[in-house]
Amino acid sequence: MSQKDLDFCQKLADLADEISMARFGALDLVIETKPDLTPVSDADKKVEEELRKLILQFSPTDSIIGEEFGVDGNSNREWILDPIDGTKNFVRGVPFWGTLIGLRVDNKMQVGMVSAPALGRRWFGAIGHGSYLRTHTNNFKNERKLQVSKVSKIEDAYFGYSSQERWAKRNQEENFEKLLKKVWRARGFGDFIIHMMVAEGSIDFSMEPKLAVWDMAALIPIISEAGGKTTSLEGGDPLEDKSLVTTNGLLQEDVLKIIN
Length: 260
Hints:
By secondary structure, the protein is of the alpha+beta class. Helices cover 35% and strands 28% of the residues. It starts with a helix and ends with a helix.
């Protein structure tokens, strides 16, 4: 990973923002249903198509893994893309959606970029370089370093989660309810935003029981460089186990113990 890769991620995010914002709230937005019964819009496809083109211009030998168009290439450098995370929000005009861009080198996440233009927020980080939040103020030039919270007790913690029904499918609904009762406050924001709020220190931990690689890849370097910790629900590699627990690090052991 180089500073050049991180700078290039900013260009990718700028392009994604331009395309997605032009279609956000559009009356002629085309929405289809994928085989897994989730929606996909013409914006999802267009963003991924254009990001792929730009990546191949930047580094033709790199691999690309995307939600809409699958895997292309076989390299130790892999770009992992979710063109619009939160498509259900996007198609309904809810501003909680964003583009997720991750770079994995030799099977380790190195760079993460999350851009949420409708919220005016962009989070990014690279291993060894820290992680940061930029806002729309002054054309995305208002920047601050990210740092997780220092809350160390479950009863004082703010917990962010997505949907509750997925916990029942894992037979962990009872443990999930137990966790809700133990924390100081819990709210269901969903998607990338709960994990970025952990990186900001706004909330203390978050978790989702079932995610794809492109839902998580970009988040991991950002949270890690903010001082947080990411594992699967089993305590392993989230990209392998397809679930994600994000904490400030201080709460990780207690959270895993309760949910399991």
